[in-house]
Design goal:
alpha+beta; single chain; three-stranded antiparallel sheet
Length: 152
């Protein structure tokens, strides 16, 4: 009597379905990790922008004004448009406050003594989301995906 060596069709299907399930779980988790990494980068950029705006305030005794969602704080006089993705710099030197302005931000400044900057993040369960919004109540209401920094 000859015995066949190998796997049955059922055994192969079970193994393939288990591998497929594991791959699906890993790919989904990697996509979530990428979204969290993008959010972390956006939050870091806003924190750096807050520092740059404070430095600007030290030089001009006022925060830049807003034009739509853009910052009006560049050029020789410190009142020109600062292009998104461009350098935030002003003065005759010029003083460079930030080498690359973050994209997709919303800058608001109703007076020259305060500002609010918002960016939309992907992770609605981010633990920094609600504390950032409660620290900056002046520009509320916020959507459930807006991370905010403001003048202290």
């Amino acid at each position: 009597m000859k015995k066949n060596k190998g796997f049955t069709l059922i055994e192969l299907l079970v193994v393939i379905s288990i591998i497929g399930t594991l791959v699906g779980l890993i790919v989904n988790n990697m996509a979530s990790a990428r979204a969290r990494a993008r959010d972390s980068s956006k939050k870091s950029s806003l924190t750096q922008l807050k520092t740059a705006l404070r430095l600007y305030y030290n030089d001009y005794q006022a925060y830049p004004t807003a034009s739509g969602d853009d910052i009006m704080g560049c050029d020789n006089d410190g009142k020109g448009l600062c292009p998104t993705g461009g350098t935030f710099s002003a003065g005759a030197g010029p003083t460079i406050y930030m080498r690359k302005l973050p994209a997709n931000i919303i800058y608001q400044s109703s007076d020259n003594d305060s500002f609010t900057v918002k960016v939309t993040i992907e992770n609605t369960s981010d633990p920094d989301l609600l504390p950032s919004q409660t620290a900056c109540p002046d520009a509320a209401p916020y959507t459930d995906t807006e991370f905010v920094v403001c003048a202290d």
